[in-house]
Amino acid sequence: MDTLLTLLNVVVLVLLIGLLVIMHRKHISFSKRVFAGLGLGIAYGLILHFAYGVDAQVLVDSVGWFSIIGSGYVKLLQMVAMPLVFISILSAFTKVIIGKNFGKMAALILFILVGTTAIAAAVGITSAVGFQLDASQIVQGDAEMQRGEDIAAKSADISEKTLPQQIIDLLPANPFLDLTGARSSSTIAVVIFAAFLGFAYLAVKRQDEKTADTIKVGIDAIYALVMGVVKIVLRLTPFGILAIMAATVATSDFSAIYNMGKFVIASYVALFVMFIVHLLIVTASGLNPITYVKKVAPTLLFAFTSRSSAGALPLNIQTQTNRLGVSEGIANFSGSFGLSIGQNGCAGIYPAMLAVMIAPSVGINPLEPSFILTLIAVVAVSSFGVAGVGGGATFAAILVLSAMNLPVALAGVLISVEPLIDMGRTALNVNGSMTAGVATARVTGELDKDVYNTETSQELTEI
């Protein structure tokens, strides 16, 4: 009987995928298909959840089959992540205007990314204090205990290293190894390696224009090839989101979410406040924030559901260039840098809130000015090198908690609501990099305001 019910559940998922295929054939826009996939996934997940219960074997087996589409889609995003980060940074050097704007552009992007992360830390601290969050008040079950042990084990090597040693670890001793994503700091290592090649290209360009043009043709060709692969993967987005959301909602422990509702609410309050900060930056740049929200919404939805900043990179860059009017060079820089530097949600709000929650358990007053200022500084510095594909928030938390001499094992208390919070964190990460790109382009004069203000800007990945 269980086998037949599992088969029925899989057939229903296939039928829903067929509905999305029909929408594609009727030339319904990509954005609307993504929203449709989200809605269908949530609805189907709720039906499965209440029909079987979260622990039912039928549901476990069904979700296992769903993962072929959902988890398979995420793995394909991971497949293209590192090549895309590498070629996006490298191609950015061939697209920027060499001169005084180059240094100004890079400095502005980094300043906004790191500066907003420091602000995010302050917002996270305020939210945790305001909601009186305390990790010691949470009853830890088997899952939380196991998660805590895993985090403690992962932090063993990090805690033994000094800050200078951790910074050295960001450097790509073997860039080909880092292109595989083998290390937790592989993303920033790939960015650094690509930047070295980019500066080498600029040096060649000053000395030998003809050779530089040949190099540029090769880089552009590889970029086009990688983007071709990316577009193939992105065609699966509505189906991937449908399967991911169906599995996530169906297996969510609503009782745990209810019991930890204060923590979830506090997290999303902080995320919302930080999103408002981003809009204030857009407004201060002389741009309409409402227009901005309308144009970035599909990309943020994708980031929210996929929980992958790296997976959202293609749409991030497309949104900036095709819909917001940002130059290609700045869009590539801000999008790629934003994967490993200054992630406001994963590297800013999350570790800051955890630190404030955990501090009372070891007798530290989180309201001490010295503790708050130190925490904000540590969060800002630690935001370099946070991975953009899964696990980034955990890595950031380990770095911050270790630096603050707080017990990292207590970070496992949020495992039951981790996926729910991670959705909002990822969307904020992506929005932060787009905000940096828009603001930088505006300041450097490389923003096409006609594209930004038009209501009929190019559709995202029309496929």
UniProtKB/TrEMBL annotation:
The chain crosses the membrane at residues 6-22, 34-52, 72-93, 105-125, 185-204, 225-251, 263-284, 371-389, 395-417. One of its GO terms (molecular function) is symporter activity. GO terms for cellular component: plasma membrane. The keyword RNA-binding does not apply. Its main location: membrane. Keywords: Amino-acid transport, Membrane, Transmembrane, Transmembrane helix, Transport. It is a multi-pass membrane protein. It comes from the Bacteria. Coiled coil: none annotated. Belongs to the dicarboxylate/amino acid:cation symporter (DAACS) (TC 2.A.23) family. PANTHER family: L-CYSTINE TRANSPORTER TCYP (PTHR42865:SF5), PROTON/GLUTAMATE-ASPARTATE SYMPORTER (PTHR42865). This is L-cystine uptake protein TcyP. It comes from Viridibacillus arenosi FSL R5-213.
